[in-house]
Amino acid sequence: MSFSLERISQRYLTDSGEIVHAVEDTTIEVDTGQFVCVVGPSGCGKTTLLKILAGFLEPTGGVARANGVPIKGPSWERGVVFQAANLYPWLTARKNVELGLKFRGVAADIRASTAEACLDLVGLGGFEDKKPYELSGGMQQRTQIARVLANDPEIILMDEPFGALDALTRERLQMDLLKISRERRKTVFFITHSVEEAIILGDRVLVMSPRPGRVVLDEKVEISKKYGRLLDGKELRSTPEFTQLRDQISDTIYAGQASAD
């Protein structure tokens, strides 16, 4: 499923009566199966765009579309992975993963088998009956990803899902996510503060300016294509193309921050 943000603007009215321009005149088009990463300084509107795509927020200007149809509210076709795992502590991993299917009225036996398959997919086979407090932070995030995958959404929206994890767990989940997105041909919109993570995961990297947020760089990542195979994070970092792209993206972010100051 493709999606687009067409001349999106978002303004907020603060409690003091001040109008805050979060995003201004932003247009993004993403094709089916693309993995798009978004970076930029804090407060530049990255999460605002994600909320608009999720249907949690109606833009004050412009229109968001999924497969050409205006987005009017949340849908199982657009799954959201948040910064925190947001699991229900009284439910097992399996029951947490089943939740979206239960709300959609899917039969209990199908819910159970789907949840088990998705937990296996994210490397949590054997942990189906564990409660969230019995799982590590990385395992909780895997459970949240499994919960989204169980609904089989066409688009996966991810808001800094690995930001609070240790480096080793983060790298493992990056590789797992790449594998899943490619095997299932999911369209992914991924927000991160890490330029390196954006290059490792993304087919495209978008850089947003300081508030009011606009896309100031839209760069394709074609390093793996040049070398004829999918490179892991360590291999990517060792290429001169990685260093060049990382510096280009970082310089764009820093230049925007400097001009804002």
TrEMBL record:
Keyword match Magnesium: no
GO MF annotation: an example: ATP binding
SUPFAM superfamilies attached to this UniProt entry: P-loop containing nucleoside triphosphate hydrolases (SSF52540)
Pfam families, A to Z: ABC_tran
Residues in ABC transporter domain copies: 3-235
Domain of life: Bacteria
Keywords associated with the record: ATP-binding, Nucleotide-binding, Transport
Organism: Ornithinimicrobium cryptoxanthini
UniProt protein name: ABC transporter ATP-binding protein
Keyword flag Lipid biosynthesis: no
